[in-house]
Specification:
Strictosidine_synth_cons-reg; phosphoprotein; about 15% helix; glycoprotein; alpha+beta; 4 helices; membrane
Length: about 375
């Protein structure tokens, strides 16, 4: 016989009361949380947006599944690592001896020599701009000209001494010097990406042009504005005859041509449009063809946002830290080749995304060298070109 006392009816009833009380508390907490959430939605809805977006119906992106120059392949999938000393080698250039130079987002610029067998040797630190060097090109005197997004247009001597060529134009700052090319007469054409002064999702959502094309004259040491109203001005490349200069407008998936000679001098038009992603840097090969790195293939949500100002307004209200994923590069490596007339010759893919976030594609000694930017794959790679 158990010695456990038998509870009375009153005691049994008393055991149930705490359960009903707990249910009431949970219900009360739930209603309070719902009220807070509803209040937050109401406040968020009436909160003014930091932008006034412009509606734009982006053209339908080319299909990688259909036959043609955009058809998906794996030409970039066999990429060989050249060096991982720079984590994000935005742009790539070569000196007269064939040594490779590239920068990293931490300000360091590296030199990569090659052995007699053509294989890359250990990367060497060449200079440190203390900024973010993007565009790189050697001038006729052997100085490395650099477009640094934090410092402006720079010149670096072979010994590593750094001089600021330009950080202002028309009495205003150069906000975000990005990429460049150098003409035979020494003139430097470079992009000032955005007067936002930094890469921000708000600019994508706003869909307004804040970039421009600049020219630096080494004789007068003056910088002038050639073209304004560009949608995230990015890569730069002169034509073989230097009758025009190309500039990538990343946020509108197009390349714009600015005429330097002839009857169209001083005017601009569209060289290539409806690219399958955000064009970054442009290089020209010995045939006069242009190679364009596509940082990311098209992001359907971004195109949808462009056609819906309410959605763009709402997205711009969110903290920037929550938006980084919305514009992160798709893990699909892509570079394209265009004719001197702007016709798409072919596309190079890594659909598996081992190599992605492509900024630069440049031909050199039988290889296609590939650069990337923060958010993409790490290190500098190359792919053997087939004849």
């Amino acid at each position: 016989m158990s010695n456990t006392p038998v509870p009375s009816a009153k005691a049994a009833q008393g055991v149930k009361r705490p359960k009903r009380s707990l249910r009431r508390n949970i219900l009360g907490w739930g209603l309070s949380l719902l009220a807070v959430l509803l209040l937050g939605v109401i406040v968020f809805s009436f909160m003014p947006s930091p932008i006034e977006p412009v509606k734009w119906s982006a053209p339908k992106a080319p299909s990688f599944q259909e036959s043609g120059p955009w058809q998906q392949n794996n030409k970039l999938s066999s990429a060989q690592l050249v060096t991982d000393a720079p984590q994000s080698p935005e742009f790539i250039t070569f000196d007269k001896e064939g040594q490779l130079y590239t920068g990293d987002s931490d300000g360091k610029i590296y030199k990569v020599p090659f052995g007699a067998d053509g294989n890359p040797q250990k990367a060497q630190l060449f200079a440190d701009t203390k900024g973010t060097p993007n565009g790189l090109k050697f001038d006729a005197n052997g100085n490395l000209i650099v477009a640094d997004i934090k410092k402006g247009l720079l010149s670096i001597t072979p010994s590593g001494s750094i001089e600021v060529l330009a950080n202002q134009v028309d009495g205003k700052p150069i906000y975000l010097a990005n990429e460049l090319d150098i003409a035979k007469d020494g003139s430097i054409y470079f992009s000032d990406t955005s007067n936002y002064g930094r890469v921000t999702f708000k600019e994508i959502a706003e869909n307004k042009p804040h970039g421009r094309l600049l020219k630096y004259d080494p004789t007068t040491k003056q910088t002038t504005v050639l073209l304004e109203g560009l949608y995230f001005a990015n890569g730069i490349a002169l034509s073989a005859d230097e009758d025009f200069v190309l500039i990538a407008e990343s946020y509108h998936y197009q390349l714009t041509r600015y005429w330097l000679k002839g009857s169209k001098k001083g005017t601009s038009d569209i060289f290539a449009d409806n690219l399958a992603g955000f064009p970054d840097n442009i290089t020209r090969d010995e045939q006069g063809h242009f190679w364009v790195g596509i940082f990311t293939t098209r992001i359907p949500f971004v195109d949808q946002m462009h056609s819906n100002p309410w959605l763009a307004n709402s997205m711009a209200k969110l903290p920037e830290s929550l938006l980084s994923g919305a514009s992160a590069p798709v893990k699909h490596g892509l570079a394209v080749e265009l004719s001197p007339q702007g016709e798409l010759i072919g596309s190079w893919h890594d659909p598996e995304g081992t190599l992605y976030g492509v900024t630069t594609a440049i031909k050199h000694n039988g290889y296609l060298y590939i650069g990337t930017a923060p958010g993409g794959s790490l290190g500098l790679h190359r792919v053997l070109l087939t004849k």
